[in-house]
Amino acid sequence: MLALRLSRGSHPLVLLRRLLLAAASAGVGFLLLCTLSYAVTGPHPADPAAQRLAWCLAPLAATVQLAVAVARTDPGTRPRQGLSAVGLGPVRMSALAAASTAVSAVLGSAVALLFFLHLRGDLSGTPFDGDAAELLAAGEPLPLGAVLLLLALVPVLGAGAAALAFRPPRRRTGEPPGDEPEHSTEAPTGLPWGVALTAVGVAVEAYTARGTEGTGGTPGGVLAGWTLTAVGLAMAGPGIVHLCGRVLQSVRPGAMRLLAGRALMDDARRIGRPLGVVCAVVSAVIAASALAGERPQPFGPLTALGAMLVAACTTATLLTSAVEARQDRAATRAGLLELGAPAALLQATALLRAVVLLAVFAPLTWAVAELAALPLRH
């Protein structure tokens, strides 16, 4: 009940982010139901249903990532002083974040079910009733347990991930609450592993694409390679952002470079991971454009819907993480303004951070895409 009351009284931008999560949940639920309808029509040796289900994992993972980002920027679930005294400690706040995420995701899953039944023709008297009856296997009954299980994936996984994101950190022996810093400027340790995973993923993508050149199928090896690439870039992203901040502060920096570099180091873990995932998605889009030029009609409508969901969710996650970083820097920004720092300096600092990240990640994205698409041009 508390989660519903907080949802009703939230700021319009907060409600917009929750609606985006509901829309993403609806898209993933619809894709999963379409895969189920394809599976019940019989065995498909050329295009197994399990392979189609595997292609739904990328939109599912992107939606869960968006759910965590939305929960972290929700004012109703952010930890504040004095809440423990009224019974809203870290555990209760974690449960509240999970409940709020589940409400939005369940709403999206319900919309997906209604839209799916509508296109199958099971709901009569509505526009476009049964227009996709043949595609969605209208003549075949769907197992109720499988439908409920698939529709529950986003709410359960999203709520669980949101609860884990709000889990209080473990304290060392003898360390009272408040000793640990909110942000750490230590260099993330995942950069070497991220580079290695990215290289392996690009190699797998290139090898698989070369092995299926001239065919119309979309092999599971391409998905496996892209997944490794995305995980590698997500692991390497924080280290790259941290390194950008350190380089920006080197060689006799001024006030603007000092502020921009320190902010990048503080936010390396927060924005580095979603930035790395966006880099992987954009590189996949560039490589897919090369694939589309080599093969006639390589992608169907459901594949395009899944790609749109991944692109939209990852972009929304990055923007939401940037909003979270801005919220956490609000006190620092107010303090600098009180000390007499001009507002133009702070705006120029934010612009410098964006330019540096774009200058680093844009060539990286292009390089990964070119390496992945290189076998398709031969």
UniProtKB/TrEMBL annotation:
Region (Disordered), start-end ranges: 168-191
Source domain of life: Bacteria
Residues spanning the membrane: 49-72, 93-117, 144-166, 275-293, 299-323, 344-369
Keywords: Membrane, Transmembrane, Transmembrane helix
Protein name, as recorded: Integral membrane protein
Organism (species): Streptomyces spongiicola
